[in-house]
Design goal:
The complex is a heterodimer of chains A (111) and B (117).
Chain A (H helix, E strand, L loop, with lengths): L4 E3 L2 E4 L5 E6 L6 E7 L6 E7 L2 E5 L6 E5 L5 E5 L8 E8 L6 E2 L3 E5 L1
Chain B lengths: L2 E5 L2 E5 L4 E8 L5 E7 L5 E7 L5 E3 L5 E5 L4 E6 L8 E8 L11 E2 L3 E6 L1
Parallel strand pairs in B: 2-11
Antiparallel strand pairs in B: 1-3, 3-8, 4-5, 4-9, 6-7, 7-8, 9-10, 9-11
The chains are: A mainly beta (111), B mainly beta (117).
C-alpha cells in the first residue's frame, strides 16, 4: 500500500510568483487536507477537499486555492507569493474525513 | 473554538529517564486528541490518539497518554527515553467526525525533546 506522497520536495520561488504543490493520497482515501507549518510552529489548517469539493477552510486568504481530482489526488495553488508563505506544506489524506495520514511535505522558500 | 497549549517548548531528559510532555486543550465539544512526532525534514507520524472509551491510550514506541477531562489535559509519557526519541512532538485536537465536520486538526506549538546520553 502506497502512502501519501508530495511533490516537489523543495522549491524556491520569488515574491509575486505563483506555485502549485501536489499530493497523492493513500489508496482508498477520498479526503485531502492541507496544512502550512512555518518554521518553529505547529501546522495550521489551510483547507480540506472531500470527494472533489472544498469541505472547510482555515484562516487563509483567497490566493490559497486548491483542487481535488477524480482519483482523489490534490493540488494546492498559491498566487502572488509573499515572503511569509515560506513554510513546510503538509498534505494529509484520510477516508471519509477520518484519521489523517501525512505526507513528507514540500518545503517552499520565497525570496 | 478549539485550542491546544503545549507547556514547555523544549524538554531535555537523560537516556533512560521518564519522558513527560504536557498538553492542555480547550474544546466546546468532546474532543478527539492526538500526539504526533516529527523528525527533522520529515512529515508527521501519529503516535497515539484518543477518541472515546478508555482514557489511557497506548501508542507506538512505548508512548502512552491519559485523557483527563477534569483537567483538560492529554499529557504524553514514556517510562524510559531512548536516543531515537529526540524529535519534535505535537499535540492536536479535532472535532469528532461528523457530517458537518472536517476533522481538521488544531495543533499546539510543539515541544522539542532532547535526549542526553
Amino acid at each position: 500500500e502506497t502512502g501519501v506522497t508530495q511533490s516537489p520536495t523543495h522549491l524556491i520561488k520569488t515574491r509575486g510568483q505563483q506555485v502549485t504543490l501536489r499530493c497523492s493520497s493513500q489508496s482508498g482515501h477520498n479526503t485531502v487536507s492541507w496544512y502550512q507549518q512555518a518554521l518553529g510552529q505547529g501546522p495550521q489548517f489551510i483547507f480540506q477537499y472531500y470527494r472533489e469539493e472544498e469541505n472547510g477552510r482555515g484562516n487563509f486568504p483567497p490566493r490559497f486555492s486548491g483542487l481535488q481530482f477524480p482519483n482523489y489526488s490534490s493540488e494546492l495553488n498559491v498566487n502572488a507569493l509573499e515572503l511569509d508563505d515560506s513554510a513546510l506544506y503538509l498534505c494529509a489524506s484520510s477516508r471519509d474525513r477520518g484519521e489523517q495520514y501525512f505526507g513528507p511535505g514540500t518545503r517552499l522558500t520565497v525570496t | 473554538a478549539q485550542s491546544v497549549t503545549q507547556l514547555g517548548s523544549h524538554v531535555s531528559v537523560s537516556e533512560g529517564a521518564l519522558v513527560l510532555l504536557r498538553c492542555n486543550y480547550s474544546s466546546s465539544v468532546p474532543p478527539y486528541l492526538f500526539w504526533y512526532v516529527q523528525y527533522p525534514n520529515q512529515g508527521l507520524q501519529l503516535l497515539l490518539k484518543y477518541t472515546t472509551g478508555a482514557t489511557l491510550v497506548k501508542g507506538i514506541n512505548g508512548f502512552e497518554a491519559e485523557f483527563k477531562k477534569s483537567e483538560t489535559s492529554f499529557h504524553l509519557t514514556k517510562p524510559s527515553a531512548h536516543m531515537s526519541d529526540a524529535a519534535e512532538y505535537f499535540c492536536a485536537v479535532s472535532d469528532p467526525i461528523g457530517s458537518s465536520n472536517t476533522g481538521k486538526l488544531i495543533f499546539g506549538q510543539g515541544t522539542t525533546l532532547q535526549v542526553k546520553p
